[in-house]
């Protein structure tokens, strides 16, 4: 109910510059059809300027009406004279609005620096893009923001580059949010970005990594989908591209890569949440990364982050045949999971995609592995189904912290095993 | 969404055709009874089962999930809901019809764990998967996680709390986008999960499994009679297809009594059926109930 209040009244306040001082919201209980008619008569009295939130319908259904201050006496007298019961739900609409506005601004992070940014809450696309700019401005020697493309709906696609110099050093790639509803991943990406700037020069092991390698971090890999999860459908997974010949929208960006494209493990139905697209790399969000990887030529580890299920996976998803480096990848995964679990005891399983989660064709790390990026991994972060995609914000930081330990393990191994 | 009323004394096979010949109906009822009954002499031992040493990796987890949904539904206790902890061991048999019989042992946790306390229960179950047909037949026994008296008291306490809840029709999206559930509404979530357990049991196959992603709306909340009458919609997340499936569920609950559930889930629209609305609205009736 409060949400509805905010929406309708604030909109009025913002657009029409109305104020609601002294306005009350009454809940009227009509006992019979005759009383329903009487309230309808009240509705017709335009000079009272009544705003019915829940109109008169039938006996038993409550009627909610906002009454401007000048009309309150008249309305109450009208109801009392006819024996119609009512209760005052909101004593003063304006004070409630003022309170809610305060709350909204308090929780909305108009942070002025990455030190006042709230990492323990979920953010909008705009807030995350602001964060990136702030971080790059605060650490100009370390952080730069690259645009690798534009989404289907025209949003810029950004990658943060963390580098201490050199010329096209061997690099680690991390992406989060390729599936837009997996909110803990984008939130973790933001946390990783900050963590990198905090630990470089402080933590010896990490400093060694960044002194020799670059890190590329794409926090919002599917910006159109992410915007859609905020505006219309929290459970949206795919891109927002239109498919000719169908009214269904979107392609699963993790079935659109050129690795086993079209094989079992993806759908040809545009309405499906695992729709592969008309051809590999049809999605600009995918193609942008493909082009970047091919142009860079020196990426040595590629980590794509999803939720939920608590898994650490390596190729393949489209076929049962093991990758040539299976033993090594399995060892790295084992160590990474051990590091992760050491922090809060969160249990992770690990293995190849096809044996651990399900058959999936056209997946990101199958392509990157086939490109020669040996250390290709996919994470599925918390939880295991209790909250699923709707992971409580209180778990963002613990999730990011434990995942970071696994990432460090992979990055260290990559540093110590050049190829 | 209209729910057709089909008051029936026992679960029926999926065929809704009311014109089925009586003989076939009796035969089907007999078979259904045998499959749903606890394991005993009525078991299809003779259906050509041969042990499958190389059963698909996920089969044991699938079986555990199906068994737990059934267990939760049958217990009808919102304060004693369980989730899967770990599969410990299992064996599988397959027959010529590619149906699976799975014996397994697994551990469980409380759905609502108490702070700091770890309650680990143990279950053994036998699950029959009928080659992607719904309603796996389950036989399951679990060690007790909570004292019966405690459970009954807790259920009754929840019942009394829920009886005095009003204005639930305004409830939209639990948890909210940020994963938050207002503590005062937590019991509603648990009750919704209990009803969803029935649905998820029926729909789980050897390939498909579900999680309750969100309680999307409350259509009706009646407590004026003895039982709690709860009509609501949920989003079920099917994992292997990654689809979000809206389901309309209607349950009636009274502590200590078996839960009654009716439901209707939307099915994914095919490319040909896609029409007008972008989110899809083709509905294939999958009506089953135990009212």
From TrEMBL, chain A:
Keyword set includes Zinc: yes
GO MF, one example: zinc ion binding
One BP term from GO: proteolysis
Stretch forming the signal peptide: 1-16
Keywords: Carboxypeptidase, Disulfide bond, Hydrolase, Metal-binding, Metalloprotease, Protease, Secreted, Signal, Zinc, Zymogen
Highest taxon of the lineage: Eukaryota
Active site, UniProt feature: 380 (proton donor/acceptor)
Cofactor(s) the protein requires to work: Zn(2+)
EC number: 3.4.17.1
Catalysis: reaction(s): Release of a C-terminal amino acid, but little or no action with -Asp, -Glu, -Arg, -Lys or -Pro; leukotriene C4 + H2O = leukotriene F4 + glycine
Location(s) in or outside the cell: Secreted
Main location: secreted
Task of the protein: Carboxypeptidase that catalyzes the release of a C-terminal amino acid, but has little or no action with -Asp, -Glu, -Arg, -Lys or -Pro. Catalyzes the conversion of leukotriene C4 to leukotriene F4 via the hydrolysis of an amide bond.
Summary of subunit composition and partner proteins: Monomer. May form a complex with proelastase 2.
Family according to the record: Belongs to the peptidase M14 family.
Protein name, entry field: Carboxypeptidase A1
Gene name for this UniProt entry: CPA1
Automatic annotation (TrEMBL), chain B:
Signal sequence, renumbered to the chain: 1-36
Region ranges (Disordered): 270-291
One GO term describing the cellular component: extracellular space
Domain of life: Eukaryota
Molecular functions per Gene Ontology: metalloendopeptidase inhibitor activity
Keyword Mitochondrion among record annotations: no
Alphabetically ordered keywords of this record: Protease inhibitor, Receptor, Repeat, Signal
Cross-referenced Pfam families: LXN
Sequence ranges assigned to domain Cystatin LXN-type in this UniProt record: 51-150, 170-273
Family statement: Belongs to the protease inhibitor I47 (latexin) family.
UniProt xrefs under PANTHER family: LATEXIN, RETINOIC ACID RECEPTOR RESPONDER PROTEIN 1
Protein name per Swiss-Prot or TrEMBL: Retinoic acid receptor responder protein 1 isoform X2
Protein's organism: Physeter macrocephalus (Sperm whale)
